[in-house]
Amino acid sequence: MKKLFVSLFAMTLALTSCSSNDEETTTKTPATGEITGTITENKTLPYGNYTLKGMVKVAAGVTLTIESGSTITADKTTGDNGLVILNGGKLIAVGTADAPIVFTEKSKIPGSWAGIIMYGDAPIVNSSTNPAPQTATSEDGLALTYGGSNAAHNGGTLKYVRVEYAGQVITTNSKEHNGFSFYSVGSGTVLENLVSYMGNDDGFEFYGGTVSGKNLVSYGNKDDSFDWQDGWRGQDNTNWYAYQTGVGNYGMEIESKGVNNNFGPKVVGITLKRAAGTTTESQSEIQLDAIQFKKEGNGDYSNIVIDGYKNQTTPTAYNGGVLQVLDLNTYNNQIAGGKIKLNNIKITNCDNTFISGVSTFTLSANSFNPTTNWTISTTATGATLTSGAWATVNGVNLLGNL
Q: From CA 110, how far away is CA 72, in angstroms rounded?
């Protein structure tokens, strides 16, 4: 018996005393807690499950870091909730493809909270007469000033972050939110592999600034999938995917506050898809097109796939299509002026290619100057994205229709 005991002890010791080269499996216990108020000193949230309560603000000079795999949940019954990064503050939220950082809401009802809002002081355009740097007032209910001359503003790093059920709209144009709202955010900010899922307003909205976004997914948002104004001019955007289903407006809504300008964003690799039966949000407005330019919006877009933008038959009959230019100034200054470029476009399952917003002009391929600013292709690939937990919700792969 003594020999047997010694042998068993030796075996146990051998199994538990692994060398440093052996793989070890550890299971982290997720932290818990409440995120509320204004964060006034650097803070790191370890991997965990947190409750977001109120309009949480990250103050200037302060960095909030969130570890990968964390879930942050708001509850609309507690009032207005959102995460606001004030100008000078930073958010470091770096997840992975397998362990994204997820912001969600308890009821899982679209429009239940304010999403992620980030402020900077990068350039905007708000007027053709005011001297630079120009500023404006936010439309998120906070009425904060944004804009400036700091093109390299750095609001932090967001990678593999998903926002669900945001896009709260309380008063149109004065208190409304999106999945991600970027107010004059600068090029020093990193935005990669982000998902805006089932919001009640826009998936992503850029209010001026110079920031760029790579690998962005806007899925099931009820207003526009991608929207910008105030002369947003990000130059390094790649792999944007919009999937509109149920209710949705434009795939991309592009404007520049009515200011005729010589700059605009550049996006390479765009896929815009609209599921059969998807209707415009408000039946008093016709917003059925893949891309709409208005108020002097412009830019350079290439390698584009557009599918499913058809005429709406119910509840009201409206025409929909690939490209709409809303007003004569945008037509004259941006299309005919050679400042809108749409190249290598593959179009399938769409009823109309060109839609003129008013009767004072007829939009066509010949409208572009030079004519090489509009080219059709059968080989365009659109966005190229890799599936994973970062783009999977409730077991559904959001990239399944890509």
A: 16
